[in-house]
Design a protein that fits this description.
This protein is of the alpha+beta class. Helices cover 68% and strands 8% of the residues. The longest helix is centred in the middle third of the chain and has 38 residues, at 186-223.
């Protein structure tokens, strides 16, 4: 059974589909501006593609330099902008924009080079469109935190890339004499159907990715202390429960560091709360640099903080002393308004039940209280 599609009508439908997707993106963005970078790529990519597909539709009615050369150049640009929108959601690597720009330039020049060979134009256009979309597949596969949505998009983009490569292979054979408007060619019909289906699948994927990103930002904002950008008390205890359960299962040791800024009240009283906030921010940034990525750092309230680490007593004491010394050395040559040492209480143990973590925090807090009684600016361990 021969599958035949009216190519010109199909191209118009693809152009109108891109316009519809751009309107949907605009509608979403009007109520939420948090994803402006990705939105700009997605929206501009859809608009450029709309113009490109319309130019291709006008083949035979306007000069080929516009309908063919310019149209395909805009196709490359539109696909690259759309790809960059997806990539920007998962990576900030500078290589991707460079690669995409290079593919657009090389693809456009190569396409123009085969001005007298229509089948090679189809092959070149298919090849470079496949290469452009393959960057999205690579970026998603390299993204360590990919979700089911990312994996679904990998399958969608991978299928389109494969279809375009098959079209390139078939078109490169001069015996097939393939052209854009070859309605009797099965590969042409399948490609148009694939692009039309991909148009809406990618459009919904863009909206879902933007929403997922917004939800992640809201969740993160709800778990962080707005001043110091470390975990708030509620989020800290959620992580404590998770790590404690893992330690119970593995029979491994965990440690808690209860940290309090010495004489912090006098800083607020003498220099104002704004300056006190700066001291808290400075302290949080310094501790974040001294602990590991997997350690959990949270603010309990006021000037009291806590660090949970998956390590034994010796390592915990080493880190606690490093924090204390860092704050002490930080004061050298600083004005009196910044003079703020820390006292730290440490508790390390192998938890046997979920309630052990709470008990360890109480013990570490007791050591902190004792450190303050003994003169502050010191580390004590249970």
């Amino acid at each position: 059974m021969q599958l035949e599609l009216d190519v010109r009508t199909s191209l118009y439908l693809i152009a109108y589909g891109n316009i519809l997707c751009s309107l949907l993106l605009l509608s979403y963005f009007s109520g939420n501006a948090d994803n402006s970078r990705a939105f700009k790529y997605f929206f501009s990519g859809r608009i450029v593609q709309s113009v490109a597909w319309i130019l291709l539709c006008l083949r035979g009615y306007i000069p080929d330099v516009y309908s063919s050369d310019l149209g395909n150049c805009l196709i490359f640009c539109g696909f690259a902008l759309e790809s960059m929108g997806f990539i920007s959601m998962v990576s900030r690597h500078r290589a991707y924009p460079v690669i995409l720009v290079a593919l657009v330039v090389i693809g456009s020049l190569t396409f123009s080079f085969y001005s007298q060979e229509p089948h090679m134009k189809v092959a070149v256009a298919s090849l470079f469109c496949a290469l452009i979309y393959s960057t999205v597949v690579c970026s998603f596969l390299l993204f360590s935190s990919r979700t089911n949505l990312h994996q679904t998009l990998v399958l969608i983009f991978g299928s389109v890339v494969l279809l375009l490569l098959v079209r390139c292979y078939v078109a490169a054979n001069p015996e097939n004499n393939m052209t854009l408007f070859d309605r009797e060619n099965l590969i042409t019909s399948l490609t148009l159907l694939g692009i039309f289906g991909f148009l809406f699948a990618a459009g919904f994927g863009q909206l879902l990715l933007l929403k997922q990103h917004d939800d992640d930002r809201l969740k993160e904002a709800a778990s962080k202390d707005p001043l110091t950008n470390v975990y708030n008390r509620r989020a800290f205890f959620e992580h404590v429960e998770h790590f404690a359960n893992m330690a119970i299962r593995d029979r491994s040791c965990i440690s808690f560091l209860m940290i309090d800024l010495d004489n912090f009240k006098s800083i607020n009283d003498n220099f104002g709360h704004d300056h006190g906030d700066k001291v808290l921010i400075d302290f949080s940034e310094k501790v974040s640099q001294l602990i590991r990525r997997e350690d959990v750092f949270g603010r309990f309230g006021g000037e009291e903080f806590c660090v949970m680490m998956a390590c034994g007593k010796d390592k915990a004491m080493e880190v606690a002393e490093r924090i204390r010394l860092a704050m002490t050395s930080h004061l050298v040559g600083r004005p009196e308004s910044d003079y703020c040492t820390v006292s730290i209480g440490v508790c390390s143990d192998v938890p046997e039940s979920s309630g052990c973590a709470d008990r360890m925090i109480v013990v570490a807090d007791g050591c902190l209280y004792k450190a303050k009684q003994e003169g502050r600016n010191r580390v004590l361990c249970a």
